[in-house]
Model the fold of this input.
Amino acid sequence: MPPRRKLRLFVILGSVVVVLLSLAWTAAPYVAGAAFVIDLSGQDVALRRWLPVSVERVETEDLSVPTRHGAIEGRLYRPARHTRRTALVVPGLHTAGVEEPRLTRLATRLAGEGINVLSLPLPDLRQFRVTPRSTDMIEDAVRWLSDQRDIAPDRKLTLVGVSFGGGLSLVAAGRSALVDRLDMVISVGGHGDLPRVINYLCTGRLPDGTVQPANDYGAAIVLLGTLPLLVPAEQVAPLEQAVRMFLDASVADGPAPEQAAALFAESRRLGEALPEPARAIIADVSARDVMRLGPRLVGLAELTAGDPALSPERSPATLVPVLLVHGVHDTVIPQTETPALASYLAGAGNEQVSWLLTPAISHANAAPAVTAGELWTLVRFWTQVLK
Done:
């Protein structure tokens, strides 16, 4: 082959190699993001076995985190080889604590990407209560964790909040004590204004006036925080017990079907033994009748949930990068909360807010079936998180 022709061939082959390497370099983060999304879903997807993604082995350690309101039991997930970031994950309302399956999947998978992860279920959220002291606990946990140089070498954290933990995390992130301690806040299905969410859960009506039936589970959570205002003092404790049994049976990834059925039955039995008005209230809960239960509660939203410590849109805004993701069919915290929250943060001066509404998740769960385009949008979002 003539030298000039050989040279031309080498140039062409070299160009092809450069292009292929560039494509591989560009595509690699998205491949990792796709694997991450599939792993979080908890579903057996054949495609996952073909994705060339290496996930680090993860080691765990239970530890106690001090706060002004008492210690909280958390679980630390460490990648076995190297750490590039540190994250604090605050889940939503669930009684299972660090053993909650969705929380375990999220923390383990984040740690597999080379991130030290502390999962921290808050005591009040584990009792189905959204309280100002929970926001204090998040603030204190961020301060404590960022001071642990063996876990957070650069003293900065990514704060990840799920469901009501997302809204509370954003409130905590805006507090002056956390300036320079956070590099990002991620809210998954979180709220912007808690009384607005309560009004939705009690009426099924969105802020624009359209109707989207609310999850009866959410209305029962609202009820739990209003009992002293609805029934005589002597009825509060037994009614609370019956409502809690209903909620324990209703949580996602909760008890087995036969256990849930037994809890529902016991909740109804306890309710039938109560005097009025408690008996009528628990009857509405058991019947999952939001339209009867809601009018009892809707007028109490500001009184029970108006504290600025409960709503990002009523608190100072964080100026660190914020990523918001929300399921378009969420019937606990409606998807309208995310664009409203993004608008508030931007109006308060945060120029680093990204948000996504997607049918690929419901509330804090993966949707059972989505299109390739919907999945790709979610992959791009998580790729932005993991980079």
